[in-house]
UniProtKB/TrEMBL annotation:
<keyword id="KW-0663">Pyridoxal phosphate</keyword>
<keyword id="KW-0808">Transferase</keyword>
<dbReference type="Pfam" id="PF00282">
    <property type="entry name" value="Pyridoxal_deC"/>
</dbReference>
<keyword id="KW-0210">Decarboxylase</keyword>
<protein>
    <submittedName>
        <fullName>Aminotransferase class V-fold PLP-dependent enzyme</fullName>
    </submittedName>
</protein>
<dbReference type="InterPro" id="IPR015421">
    <property type="entry name" value="PyrdxlP-dep_Trfase_major"/>
</dbReference>
<dbReference type="InterPro" id="IPR002129">
    <property type="entry name" value="PyrdxlP-dep_de-COase"/>
</dbReference>
<dbReference type="InterPro" id="IPR015424">
    <property type="entry name" value="PyrdxlP-dep_Trfase"/>
</dbReference>
<keyword id="KW-0456">Lyase</keyword>
<comment type="similarity">
    <text>Belongs to the group II decarboxylase family.</text>
</comment>
<dbReference type="GO" id="GO:0008483">
    <property type="term" value="F:transaminase activity"/>
</dbReference>
<keyword id="KW-0032">Aminotransferase</keyword>
């Protein structure tokens, strides 16, 4: 046997040498991005060219160039001109928790494979439950993303509300879930994974501001009942993804209570507003929900991927994946927090709880009050600058830090304006100074920004407006000739 290879791979000296080099690169990256000194948020490359680069790098690249190339060839969420998708600029301390998790590699399926993280996860989820306003008997878990957490919540809902033992015996009757048509597609996907089919997703229409039109809840419910569907859950978005509109959770909660439905809140993006003294009112009613999802990697300054799934009654967390039938629900009283793997989709997961815990410990929950409030306030300022300018149209007034708008000009058709806005976004992508995305709402293409970075200021946003306007006017000239 030759152990020399493994001695080299696990050499502490080699590790120290490599990590000190990377730490310097990370430090420079944080400095250059957060200060806005770096000129670009991304260096755009066509997909095929990027693929060729990495194919060739495997054979010919210098080892020491690996990390610098990866850093250069990714989109920089720490740059204040990053206003793109809903992922955070992780607080640097959470790079270290990610690093420690990778080293220790305790998968947490059972207590002895993660004593500290199992306990830490309970402390963290209990803290969040209290902040939601759950009073006693609550509990939760951390899992790999909002998509998985929403699916888990709906499985819990089905177990709690449907008396047939579907887990063991399969479906007999058609079942359904109610959700606003603007909800994130993962709810739709979860329902499909659960075998509910298209007819099992009862899409409640949205109002003009893209939040659920609760005035048609009864009608949507009755239509589904008439079609023979047994509805077991209703989902409120807090907020929905495209426009950041919060559903009226209080009204949904009353409706759920009246009909005996499970009330789930998808707060993957904006559930973090429970920490904001100024904006927590957007979540009025959340304390009456049966379950809530909040992503750490969106509005809570953590790296991908970590999501909290919280239950008003922890029994449901224990039973989602258990073989026990729902009529036994109330028999379970013990708190089985030490066996995390029983409650989650994952058997093995990362020690993601450390990100939450270290932020709570070092900076206190106040950091989320300040962060959410700052970003939501900034969105209101951005709206003001946009509406002062005749060349811009808002999709709706922002309720969170997601702002959708488009360049417009009188006497141009919707098709023309759609093309102009698509071209603007493509040019911005290729230039790489700012990063933003686009979305289609009621057949109109809008530019979509999520103000995720704590260093983005009004100055950056006014610069972006000026850039878009210039590009828009150039496009108009181009069309004229
Ligand atoms: C409202 C909402 N729910 C769920 C998700 C999915 O979360 P994740 O990307 O963590 O799976 C998203 C993602 O953007 C979202 O905005």
């Amino acid at each position: 046997m030759n152990d020399e290879l493994f001695k080299k791979i696990y050499s502490p000296e080699e590790f120290e040498k490599n990590s000190l080099i990377l730490l310097k690169q990370i430090k420079a990256h944080i400095q250059n991005t957060t200060s806005g000194k770096a000129l670009k948020t991304l260096h755009w490359n066509e997909p095929e060219k990027e693929l060729d680069f990495w194919k060739s790098f495997l054979e010919n690249g210098e080892n020491e160039d690996f990390f610098p190339e990866v850093i250069k060839r990714t989109t920089h969420t720490h740059h204040p001109k990053y206003v793109g998708h809903q992922v955070s600029a992780p607080a640097p301390i959470t790079l270290l928790t990610a690093f420690a998790s990778a080293l220790l590699n305790n998968g947490m399926a059972v207590y002895e494979m993660g004593m500290a993280p199992s306990a830490i996860e309970k402390v963290v989820t209990d803290e969040i439950c209290k902040k939601i306003g759950y009073e006693s008997g609550f509990g939760g878990l951390l899992t790999s993303g909002g998509t998985l957490a929403n699916l888990t919540a709906l499985l819990s809902a089905r177990k709690a509300k449907i008396s047939n033992d579907i887990w063991n015996e399969g479906y007999s009757d058609p079942l359904g879930v109610m959700v606003c048509e603007q909800a994130h597609y993962c709810i739709d996907r979860a329902a499909k994974i659960m075998g509910l089919g298209e007819k099992g997703i009862i899409k409640v229409p949205a109002q003009d501001n893209f939040s659920m039109d609760t005035s048609v809840l009864e009608e949507s419910y009755q239509n589904a009942i008439t079609a023979g569907i047994k509805i077991f859950a209703i989902v409120g978005s807090a907020p929905s993804t495209a426009t950041g509109a919060y559903d009226d959770l209080m009204t949904i909660s009353k409706f759920a209570k009246e009909k005996g439905l499970w009330f789930h809140v998808d707060g993957a993006h904006g559930g973090a507003a429970i920490y904001s003294n100024k904006y927590e009112h957007l979540l009025n009613g959340i304390s009456t929900s049966d379950s809530v999802v909040i992503d750490g990697h969106k509005m809570m300054l953590m790296p991908t991927i970590t999501t909290a799934l919280l239950f008003k009654n922890k029994i449901h967390a224990e039973l989602t994946f258990s073989q026990r039938a729902d009529y036994l629900l109330n028999d379970i009283e013990e708190d089985d927090w030490i066996n995390s793997g029983k409650k989650t989709f994952e058997c093995t997961k990362t020690m993601m709880c450390m990100h939450w815990y270290i932020l709570f410990k070092l900076y206190g929950q106040e950091v989320f009050n300040q962060f959410v409030t700052r970003q939501y306030d900034l969105a209101k300022d951005f709206e003001k600058y946009l509406t002062e300018n005749a060349n811009f149209e808002m999709a709706t007034s922002p309720m969170s830090n997601i702002v959708c708008f488009r360049f417009k000009e009188e006497n141009y058709s919707n098709n023309q304006l759609n093309q102009i806005n698509k071209n603007i976004r493509q040019e911005l992508l290729e230039e790489g100074e700012f990063y933003l995305v686009q979305t289609k709402l009621n057949e109109k293409i809008f530019l979509r920004t999520s103000l995720m970075n704590p260093f983005t200021t009004s100055e950056h946003l006014n610069l972006l407006i000026a850039k878009i306007k210039k590009k828009g006017l150039e496009q108009l000239e181009f069309i004229k000739h």
